[in-house]
Amino acid sequence: MNVESVRGSSCDAVHAQGLTRVFKTKNTQVTALSSLDLRISSGTMSALVGPDGAGKTTFLRMICGLLTPSAGRLTVLGLDPVREKRTIQARVGYMPQHFGLYEDLSVQENMKLYADLNDVPPEIRTERFARLLEMTDLKSFTDRPAGKLSGGMKQKLALACTLVRSPELLLLDEPSAGVDPLSRRELWEIITSMVQKEHISVLVSTAYMDEAERCSMIMILHEGHLLRCGSPEELKKLTDGLCRRATVPDSLSARTFQAMLLDNSDVIMDAVPEGANVRFVLTSPEIKTEEVLQSTVSLPLRCVPANPTLESSFMHLLKNVAKNTVTVQDKIKHAESCKADNNAAFNTLTAAAKKTSDAVTSLQQSEIVIEVRDLVRRFGTFTAVDKTSFEVRRGEVFGLLGPNGAGKTTTFRMLCGLLPATSGYLNVAGENLRSATAQARSRIGYVSQKFSLYGNLSVMENLRFFGGVYGLPPLILRQRIQEVLDQFELTGHENDISGSLPGGYKQRLAMAAGLLHRPEILFLDEPTSGIDPLARRMFWRQITSLAELGTTIVITTHFMEEAEYCDRMLIQDSGRMLALGTPSEVRRLGGNSSTIEEAFIHIVRQARAARMAAGDA
Q1: What is the pTM of this model?
Q2: What's the burial of 309, exposed, middle or buried (CB within 10 Å: 0-12/13-18/19+)?
Q3: Which domains does the chain carry?
Q4: Is residue 387 within a helix (H) or strand (E), and if so which, with residue range?
Q5: pLDDT digit string (tens) for 458-505?
């Protein structure tokens, strides 16, 4: 495969030549990186992007000397990470996906501990700590235990601990996974400031294309191979002339319209909701867009050219790789196995396309399956959820949004029957959760924020275990296991140990286990945190199908673009309701913002300013 060369400088932070890493087990051999050639210039900010299992984390761990090459050559700051590992580790800062904060220690104690571990001289600690605490906005929380910080504050403390000594090269492995938009912006302001003030080099692995776009160079990995390198502007040109934006028809939800476009894969390679529109990418600039849309939805639509984005080019590259590696036999086999499912999906979505405004009104007046009135949850004197009220209807996709520490997960756990409410009324699937928790649980599915299956069991063993927990008879369980394996593309991974799966595959397995018993209501707690755009598309295509068939979905997410998929959403902060409505209503409430993210930030900041003015922190 042709790979664009990366322009290096006379002083490279990282230089890889034919770099290969193979993991060997008793019966298998996995090539995590294959013949990697690249240069990363000193004093720059560079990004590694790619699907789960692409080799991003392996590469970062090799740079800091935690893994050795199987073949090829690697130099870091001009040094060999195998022979000069200790020297490199003294000059490199590494923040892994799960940074090891000591939750019983305070913010100050964590920073002191990492300063001790890195032999930071006492005479420079005072000034260094003060600057990092100011930068991360943690100076008012120095005595608070790390375990009592919000997710965003924990990530900022982890970054501060990584920077207690000033590294020449900073390695960040998905630093903002699970972090809300406000904290994510603050985190990147800190990183950018460090690059400018201290001239350090930064290499970041990220699943978010807007973060990658902040970098001067982006490296796209896939299955251990380097697909393409270049600046954001260079990569965007890959889809120049291929991008379009169409207004969502009144009779459809954005996610249904998106799914219909994605199913037309011969001419449309990607589609994603964007405000009141759906942005899509054509497979060729010669395709007549109006004819495609007319044949897809049979409705008059407004469609205009759109500027290319980094995410559209990322999807373009990955889809082309997939198309070129699938053999004719594979295509025939896949077409035969999926024909019935595809026909059913097409018929379902075609029927959705013919919905009228009367049908939409009917949906809005349909059965309420979740009813919440004045819900309160206190932990001692602390009120985590304060008088929240809303309803969710059958087949609706309902989003719970808010900054870290807003009360989303607490609300979520009460809805699932995992945490009792202090006061208020809560009815789920026809059962009062304050008196009939067990009855309601049998009718719901739950996918937690963190991988909660048994990591030492295989994929198949986990599915069999949870099928037994749900009480599925053996014959039905075997059938359902095969269905969810196919549905979430886990076939071929049945014997893989769950704990060793890449993040995206873990989430697929968690979804498969949560859907084994065909629940009426599915609760998803940040299910796509840290997952690449390709995996997110597949995930939301499945959610769209479930919702069309009547499954009710309640989801929390920090990825605001995903909120566009929701029928309605609730925004909370400090346990209080700030906004409730459809995506278009929330954008209006957020100062007529063009995106949910901008609306979210506007609404949260406005509410916090009002509380500060009232002296109510």
Answers
A1: 0.80
A2: buried
A3: 12-230 (3.40.50.300), 237-354 (3.30.1360)
A4: strand 382-393
A5: 999 999 998 888 888 999 999 999 999 988 888 888 998 888 787 778
